[in-house]
Amino acid sequence: MTLYFILALLILMTLWLGWRYFKLRRGIQALLDQLKRGDELSESANELGPLASLRNTQHAILRERLQSAETQRSRLSTILDQLTDAILIADADGRVQFANPAAEKLFGSPLAGRSVVEAVRRHQLADAWRRCRETGEAQTESVEVPASRHFLQLIVVPDRDTRGGTLLLVQDLTRVRRLETVRRDFISNLSHELRTPLASLKALTETLQGGALADEDAAPRFLGRIVTEVDALTHMAQELLDLSKIESGQVELVLRKVEPLSVLRSACERMRVQAERAGVSLTLEETATPPKVQADASRLEQVLVNLIHNAVKFTRRGGSVTLSASEEEGAVVFAVSDSGAGIPSEELSRIFERFYRVEKSRTGSGTGLGLSIAKHIVEAHGGKIWAESEVGHGSKFSFKIPASR
Ligand code: ADP
Q1: Could you tell which of 235, 351, 396 is best to mutate to test the pocket of ligand 1, judged by most ligand atoms within 8 Å of the CB?
Q2: Cβ contact 339:393 at 8 Å
Q3: Is the sign of the CA dihedral 15, 17, 23, 25 positive or negative?
Q4: Which residue from 37, 104, 312, 369 has the fewest beta carbons nearer than 10 Å?
Q5: Triad 341, 368, 147: Cα angle to 5°
Q6: What are the distances in angstroms from CA 249 to CA 97, 176, 184, 187?
Q7: How do residues 86-133 score in pLDDT, each as one tens digit?
Q8: Contact of 170 with 120, CB cutoff 8 Å
């Protein structure tokens, strides 16, 4: 009896173990299938539960890390794409592995796969890269490209993650350089422009002090010249102030719908007396009515006055100055034409620069700032100014302002 009981117990235990084994195998097979598919593992209550839970936790951590790495990578890639500085990454063999869009714009594309020497093309930059590889230390080098008048600065550092690799950063400092030159020129021009009237004021006052004050003929003449010089200095100071305000954006444009012909009429009337005194005819052509422009009327008039002032100044007695406005491709083109001295073609591109005057002796008075101011005002309106001229036959100054919608 006892034997039967033990036998039955053994059979039952064998069946139970077989069933457990069968369940475990099925569980393992299910886990393997889930792992293969990359699914979340089902955490059953059996022996495999803690294993599945551990793997799920690790999976979640890994996914989070991957996501954060992907976010970082995409951020870095956006920064590199948007960066105006050129970035190149080279491997230990000196082959470019990565180049951002700014680098391809500067050196031409494609750059990946080329040697650094081939990519940067300038031997000074290539030498700096070689020095960095030899010494393992960061190097800086500047180079001017005479053909394109570009000024480049290279910073090359060893890439610590890859032995022998390098990271190159090339900055285009052309604009900064140009601004520095403009600033230097501006100061030197300004001091030069101030020296002449100040020297003549000093000479005039010394002459008066030296006895000319008692001379009834000479004294009023000298005083008159002093007034003229002081007026010229005041005019220059006013123009400089205007220019600096416009350039620094301190002048706010009061934009309204403006009738081009009404601004032309107003500027024409303001300059009428000066033109009559110079014996130059001043005419406004009113053949068509151009559309209104979105503009600051007083600033627009200032541009016209500057242009008419020049046109009258550089036209001989008996000559003519004509004003007009016409519609052109969604804009209005204002023009001031004269039959005056004209401007040599090689100087046309420079007359809008501060202090630039064509043959200073010919001009006599003037600061060389009027056209600069006009250019800034026109550009602040989203427009463009240009000049056409022929020496001996006259000049035509035009500027374009978008028509108002
Ligand atoms: P300025 O105070 O000397 O007139 P601008 O900036 O107005 O200064 O003009 C710069 C230079 O451009 C002038 O000095 C002159 O040489 C030349 N210029 C401007 N307008 C005319 C013109 N209508 N005809 C001939 N030359 C001109």
Answers
A1: 351
A2: yes
A3: negative
A4: 37
A5: 90
A6: 44, 19, 21, 20
A7: 999 999 999 999 999 999 988 887 888 999 999 988 889 999 999 999
A8: yes
